Amino acid sequence: MTATILDGRATKDAIFSELAPRVAALAEQGITPGLATVLVGDDPGSHAYVRMKHSDSAKVGVNSIRRELPADISQAKLEAVLDELNADPACTGYIVQLPLPKQLDAGAILERIDPEKDADGLAPVSLGRLVLGKPGPLPCTPLGIVELLRRYEVPLDGARVAVIGRGITVGRTLGLLLTRRTENATVTLCHTGTRDLAAEVRRSDIVVAAAGSPGLVTPDMVKPGAAVLDVGVSRVDGKLAGDVAPGVEEVAGHLAPNPGGVGPMTRAMLISNVVEAAERAAAR
Ligand SMILES: Nc1nc2c(c(=O)[nH]1)N[C@@H](CN(C=O)c1ccc(C(=O)N[C@@H](CCC(=O)O)C(=O)O)cc1)CN2
Ligand SMILES: [Mg+2]
């Protein structure tokens, strides 16, 4: 078997073609969505992701606002930048690029984001809405995973899913999304304390690897025909490495590779969240 590739780049482009006319319709009502990014420090990966977010915005007609801040910024100064964005009508949505430098309290920063402008769905109010099943912005990577599976018609209803990694940006929130009645999957949230990871993966129809552990998921662990999504990002000898080992494509039925799978979907869902928030604001 050779897996069908879940092509995140092509799917992102398709989503952008769907979003562009919606942005044009907002423009006719005199509304231009504006996405701001808050980037602290010099991490080259974070700089690259933020650059991509602005280039994506330009493609669909969303305005860009950038705040680049020094790595040693104080909590108070960073919070003041967020207060400015909360008050700026040109900024209809914004994100704080993660991770933040260690001296900063990331939880308090996310709490400072006006929930109406939370483009990442990571502010506590948005996470609470997700838990309660209320409408609101959803975290971009989990949303991108669900959207990618949906567009490739990978069945979720009743599927057994192994999610590896319990972080807020991917694993924990993906578990919440996949167990909604609309998705109806059965999720096992695996982590470093999981006793027999191979057994959990082997009985799963869908495997989402988001541990940041290079080559963690090997071909012998995968049920033939399963869908495997590689979300892990690590550096090995200066090169990007995912969580899925070579050879899995020979066993899996579907594979979201890394790069080219879930990463572009994360960006597509960010822009989609920005457009949806602007549409909600226009309807008020
Ligand atoms: N505030 C946030 N911080 C972080 C998030 C997030 O959703 N919100 N997620 C990740 C980083 N991330 C977005 O910020 C992100 C990661 C990867 C990609 C992507 O398109 N990757 C490409 C490869 C790009 C490359 O060439 O390096 C791919 O996988 O094909 C986009 C966004 C952590 N921080
Ligand atoms: Mg900290």
From TrEMBL:
One protein family per Pfam: THF_DHG_CYH
Keyword tags: Amino-acid biosynthesis, Histidine biosynthesis, Hydrolase, Methionine biosynthesis, Multifunctional enzyme, NADP, One-carbon metabolism, Oxidoreductase, Purine biosynthesis
Domain Tetrahydrofolate dehydrogenase/cyclohydrolase NAD(P)-binding: 139-281
GO terms for biological process, alphabetical: L-histidine biosynthetic process; methionine biosynthetic process; purine nucleotide biosynthetic process; tetrahydrofolate interconversion
CDD domains found in the cross-reference section: NAD_bind_m-THF_DH_Cyclohyd
Catalyzed reaction equations: (6R)-5,10-methenyltetrahydrofolate + H2O = (6R)-10-formyltetrahydrofolate + H(+); (6R)-5,10-methylene-5,6,7,8-tetrahydrofolate + NADP(+) = (6R)-5,10-methenyltetrahydrofolate + NADPH
Any single GO CC term annotated in Swiss-Prot or TrEMBL for this entry: cytosol
Pathways involved: One-carbon metabolism; tetrahydrofolate interconversion
Superkingdom assignment: Bacteria
GO MF entries: methenyltetrahydrofolate cyclohydrolase activity; methylenetetrahydrofolate dehydrogenase (NADP+) activity
EC id: 1.5.1.5, 3.5.4.9
Residue ranges of domain Tetrahydrofolate dehydrogenase/cyclohydrolase catalytic in the record: 6-120
Binding residues for NADP(+): G165, R166, G167, V233
Gene3D superfamilies listed in its UniProt record: Leucine Dehydrogenase, chain A, domain 1 (3.40.50.10860), NAD(P)-binding Rossmann-like Domain (3.40.50.720)
Biological role stated in the UniProt entry: Catalyzes the oxidation of 5,10-methylenetetrahydrofolate to 5,10-methenyltetrahydrofolate and then the hydrolysis of 5,10-methenyltetrahydrofolate to 10-formyltetrahydrofolate.
Xref: HAMAP family: THF_DHG_CYH
Subunit structure: Homodimer.
NCBIfam families reported for this sequence: PRK14193.1
Family named by the database record: Belongs to the tetrahydrofolate dehydrogenase/cyclohydrolase family.
Identification of the protein by name: Bifunctional protein FolD
Organism annotation: Saccharomonospora amisosensis
